[in-house]
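Dear colleague,

Thank you for sharing your sequence with our group. We've completed the structure prediction you requested, and as agreed, I am returning the results in plain text so they can be pasted directly into your records. Please verify that the sequence below matches your submission; if there's any discrepancy, let me know and we will rerun it promptly.
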Amino acid sequence: MIRRVDDTRETISLPIEDKSSMHIRTFRAASLHDALAQIREQMGPDASVLHTRQVRDGWMGWLGRTYVEVTAGLRDASDPAGPPADRAGGVDSRLASQSSLSVFSPHNSAVAGDSGLPPQLKPYRDELIAVGVEERTADRWLSATASFAANVGESSSESIDRWIDHLRRSVARELRIGSPIRTQPGDRRVVALVGPTGVGKTTTVAKLAAGFRIEARRRVGLLTIDTFRIAAVQQLKAYAEIMDLPMEVVEKPDQMSSALHRLGDVDLILIDTAGRSPRSDARIDQLVELLRSAQPDETHLVLSATSSRSTIQAALEGFAPVRPTAAIMTKLDEAACTAGVVSAIVATDRFPGIPLSYMTNGQQVPDDISTADVDSLLSRLLPIQAGFSQLEAA
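Please find the predicted structure tokens below.
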């Protein structure tokens, strides 16, 4: 297979007045976090980030992987100009800050609901509420965090990193992780993806199809009932042609049976659906009717990590009539933090929670998708320090 570097995108370039006395190296990694870790390990904490960009390989960008390229410089110790932080606007502190995934505001003002919490946990409550977590959920998480720390015999003077680890463990206990799609040769499985407009259903269908077709070597068929957007049909057809997959388009329930039959003897049929507002009862009813005619074995509700807690809750309530068996969380790479969306899907005394099956973190097919993983979902539970987040988001 011919592979080439394609579709590079400049992300950030930080000017240094004089690079002649600097040792400059370029690092390539799967993520900015990994690249910065390499820089700190190989060049030390005094290195400065000079330039970053995203690079995608593959043939014409199709089915390629996305990498982050970071150019870093280390000034000669004998250079009288001083440490690079003085010359590059404090970029070094951004490198150092990445060792802690979450750094919070130093305020410790008490607010209603935080009584009894260790002083170090009180700012976390403010942060959780600020990113959309309900007060009762924030209080539940933090109470569990304090209890966990007490049970393992740790004092309230432990480090920020230890507190965030305890908080993640407390949240993780409420998360439900479901099974990924499982297929067997000769045993056809029908899986539908549903969800609001703009959450990435069609791209996710393509990622799943490519994974099962290329990596698992299963026979896959595609079916779309998203006839409201011509572009969506064309996009899925393009993916089907590239991967040499059969595809059918269905507009009405009475067309479903014959379309499924025409897809032939495949192991997996993936159904793409039109994005619908969860508040549109008529459109949801239409979707229910179409899916009833397809009789899917699984229905995955696609949710975006960039959505607010209230938006996620509205989707869960609005799409309840289609009886989703699991959820797929998309666009994790675009989300500054995940506390708000996580608080909407975890199990509570009022809601059993919805199991997560997959997560996506980019647009590349088939690479930017993985089975649901608690650590990955909670790695950015709360916003990271501004300096580093500016680099990552660029």
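Summary note from our side: DSSP finds 14 helices and twelve strands in the chain.

Kind regards,
the structure core
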